[in-house]
Amino acid sequence: MKSIGCIGCGNMGGGVLKGLVAHEQFELFGHDHTRAKVESIGPEGRVAWMESPLELARRCDVIILAVKPYQMEAMLEEIRPALDSSKVVVSLAAAFSQARLKKGVEGRCPVVRCMPNLPVIVGRGVFALCFDDEALDDPRRKELLALFQLMGMALALPEAQFPAFSSLVGCGPAFVLLFMEGLLNAGITMGLKAPVSRELIAAMVEGTARLALESGESFADLRVRVCSPSGTTIRGVNHMERCAVPGHVTDAVLEALKRDREMAASD
User: Fold this and answer.
1) Whole-angstrom Cα distance, residue 258 to residue 262?
2) pLDDT (tens digit per residue) in 61-91
3) What does the alpha-carbon distance between residue 31 and residue 153 come to, in Å, rounded to a whole number?
4) Which range is most confident: 37-46, 75-84, 93-102, 255-264?
5) What is the model's pLDDT at position 263?
């Protein structure tokens, strides 16, 4: 697995290639309607521009498809002549099933569903990979998992759990950013300049996430450690509890899941 190409180099596809630029063991290739998107990824010449999806598929061992779901069937048909058992097609498209991927490649090569989230564009993505394809041997599964772990956190999930992953981790950055907006408004109200508040909040959220990952303690236990008796934090936490903030967050994730199922049913 030394040559990796991505068709579609927007936020997700471009983010994946950008995350791999520093790893010199990989040859990187890209194709996009806008050639400048490919040429802007990494140092000049690090990601080679391919004139067509078919040309990229012929050149690469791993072919990442970062196109819209409605474009996927036509894209699979276009690259199909270049596919064989030595290659792997990885789809980043939401709501495009493993079964449809297998049908699209006509059994010529293994297929993998991968779901990233937006922080991939800064090398801190969280990826779910579905390896529900008997054509993909165990060594290549491990290689693919290790590949995406270079760009953040990656784990294997059965396809049945993808809607939950999407609702929680795919949508999650938007929910966190909305909370951060509320903190920003509070900072400005208290007299802090917006750029200062923004920087402080982003650093605080990053540090808190790192603390949670490295400590192994539950979120609740860590929260209690911030809440001194009769202090300021517990006053604010009590207000959030009265407003049912945790419940509303849970409901937001479940609403996202409901919409995911609606979209899948109408597909």
Assistant:
1) 6
2) 999 999 999 999 999 999 999 999 999 999 9
3) 25
4) 75-84
5) 81
Helices (H), the chain: 11-20, 35-39, 53-59, 69-79, 98-105, 138-149, 162-165, 172-189, 194-215, 219-226, 232-242, 245-266
Q: How many other C-beta atoms are found inside a 10 Å radius of the C-beta of residue 41?
A: 22
Three-class SS state of 66: coil
> How many alpha carbons lie under 13 Å from residue 63 in its C-beta half-sphere?
32
Task: Output the CA torsion 64→67→72→74 (10° steps).
Answer: -100
pTM over 0.85: yes
Q: How far apart are CA 232 and CA 33, in angstroms?
A: 53
Which amino acid would we find at residue 183?
A: L
**So what's the pLDDT on residue 1?**
60
